Amino acid sequence: MISSHLTPAQQAAYREDGYLFPIRVMSEDDAADLRTRLEAFEAEWLDNGLDLPLNTYKRINAQIVMPIAHEMGSHAGILDAVEGVLGPNIMLYSVEFLIKEPRTKAVVTMHQDLAYWGMGEIDGLTTAWLALSPANRDSGCMDVVRGSHKSPILQHHDTFDEDNLLSRGQEIRVDVAEEDKVALTLNPGEISLHHGLTIHGSGPNTSDDRRIGVVIRYLSPDIVKSGGERDYAHLVRGADAHDNWQHNPAPKTPFTPEALAHYEEVRRLQTKVMMRGAKGASSFYDKAEA
């Protein structure tokens, strides 16, 4: 069995740098099996009469309607690593499949996760980035800026560029020099962890294979959203003694009517925060009311 518990040195490196990689949480064979199952799921549901495009469900809160997404978000090896950052009580906030097709121009511009989530400048949130295919410079792996989590939330602007995988095409109003970027190269079955304030992004996939990343957000139960909204999360380890979050049920089968209705409820609530002040339209969130 693979041990992914963080050592004290790894915990210190995360606190100092704002990220940690690579952390092996499963074997390459197990990662290959997850990829096979995911791609079979994609083929089965691509044209299956869903209310929204399949890509929307894959990109926003996939854990609510896709059992395989919830399975990945609850993976014991990933949670062991996350526990070294957040402690024993862990809530799953979201699962996103961030996939770049071969030889495509899709990018993720440099940004901070917490800029749009209504949680303020907190330490109690981390993102695990699971590789199901090789993530390297050719395939468009994630780049981070070391120590940038020690800065406050920076000013961002929205591009709404069609080649940008982010919901608003958000980008910090600071040019990041190439020499300041650290490439988080990962093999299948490995993860990176990064702080919610760490500046990060990624380039295009120039390789001949899909770059399949599973972006999993975790938070501590004591976190409170600054706008007063009682958002949704799912307890995956430990206990929730705070009741700051409404709890998502775990899906047992894909896209049940009950799960789809709940998905829309969560998407509407999060739209109010994610799209606040946006002047353009997102393919994932509705436009927030003025």
Question: What topology does this entry show?
Answer:
Layout: H1 8-17, E1 19-24, H2 28-45, H3 54-59, H4 62-65, H5 67-73, H6 76-86, E2 90-100, E3 108-111, E4 125-131, E5 142-145, E6 156-158, E7 170-172, E8 181-184, E9 190-195, E10 200-202, E11 211-219, E12 232-237, E13 246-247, H7 257-274
Parallel strand pairs: 12-13
Antiparallel strand pairs: 1-9, 2-11, 2-12, 3-10, 4-9, 4-11, 5-8, 5-10, 6-7
Q: Top keywords for this entry?
A:
seven-stranded mixed sheet, Jelly Rolls, 290 residues
Strand order of the largest sheet: 1-9-4-11-2-12-13
Structural class: alpha+beta
**CATH architecture classification:** Sandwich
State the distance separating the first and last CA atoms: 52 Å
In CATH's first tier, which class applies?
A: Mainly Beta
Strand content: 15-25%
Mean pLDDT value: 89
Q: So what's the oligomer here?
A: single chain
The beta-strand count equals: 13
What count of domains describes the coordinates? Answer: 1
Order of helices and strands: HEHHHHHEEEEEEEEEEEEH
**Regions with little confidence, pLDDT below 50 for 5+ residues:** none
* CATH domain topology: Jelly Rolls
Question: What would you say this structure looks like, in words?
Answer:
The model has no long low-confidence stretch (mean pLDDT 89). The strands form three sheets. The chain has a seven-stranded mixed sheet with strand order 1-9-4-11-2-12-13. The chain has a four-stranded antiparallel sheet with strand order 3-10-5-8, with no helix packed on it. A two-stranded antiparallel sheet has the order 6-7. Helices cover 26% and strands 23% of the residues. The radius of gyration is 18 Å and the shape is globular. It is an alpha+beta fold and 290 residues long. The relative contact order is 0.22. The N and C termini lie far apart (52 Å). It contains seven helices and 13 strands. It has a single domain, classed as q2cbj1_9rhob like domain (Jelly Rolls, Sandwich), CATH 2.60.120. It has helices spanning 8-17, 28-45, 54-59, 62-65, 67-73, 76-86, 257-274; strands at 19-24, 90-100, 108-111, 125-131, 142-145, 156-158, 170-172, 181-184, 190-195, 200-202, 211-219, 232-237, 246-247.
